UniProtKB/TrEMBL annotation:
Alphabetized UniProt keyword annotations: Membrane, Methylation, Transmembrane, Transmembrane helix
Pfam families: N_methyl
Protein name: Prepilin-type N-terminal cleavage/methylation domain-containing protein
Annotated PROSITE patterns: PROKAR_NTER_METHYL (PS00409)
Residues spanning the membrane: 20-41
Domain of life according to the entry: Bacteria
Acyltransferase in keyword set: no
Organismal lineage: Bacteria, Pseudomonadati, Pseudomonadota, Betaproteobacteria, Rhodocyclales
Gene Ontology BP, a term: protein secretion by the type II secretion system
Keyword Ribonucleoprotein: no
InterPro entries: Bac_GSPG_pilin (IPR000983), N_methyl_site (IPR012902), Pilin-like (IPR045584)
NCBIfam families: IV_pilin_GFxxxE
Amino acid sequence: MRIESSRHGAPHRWRGFTLIEMIVAMAILALLLTIALPRYFDGLERSKEAVLAENLKITRDVIDKFYGDNGRYPESLGELVEKRYLRSLPHDPITQSNRTWRLIPPEPPHRGQIFDIRSGARGRAKDGRAYASF
């Protein structure tokens, strides 16, 4: 077995990190995570809210086009898919489902079942509005 020596003739030892160096590195990492993680989760929530607003906007536009073409409102969201107004049922990113929508019927003189659509999610968005009022 061969041991390398330094310039002064003493054997050269390979050193690892000391406990203090590891603690300092972990403290720096923890500090960075404390700053970054809340911003990440806040951005994630805001993106879900933006997707919800866009899905509602598109679906409401499709309901209006359906009414313009047929003279009545759709009986179900499935009818919008069947008649190819939508490729698939819209997804509510807050509830992570396409079955939690609140369907608002039209006023009595109009025919059909869906005049408007709202999110079935409970709680409030970052701007203070209830998800159900989007």
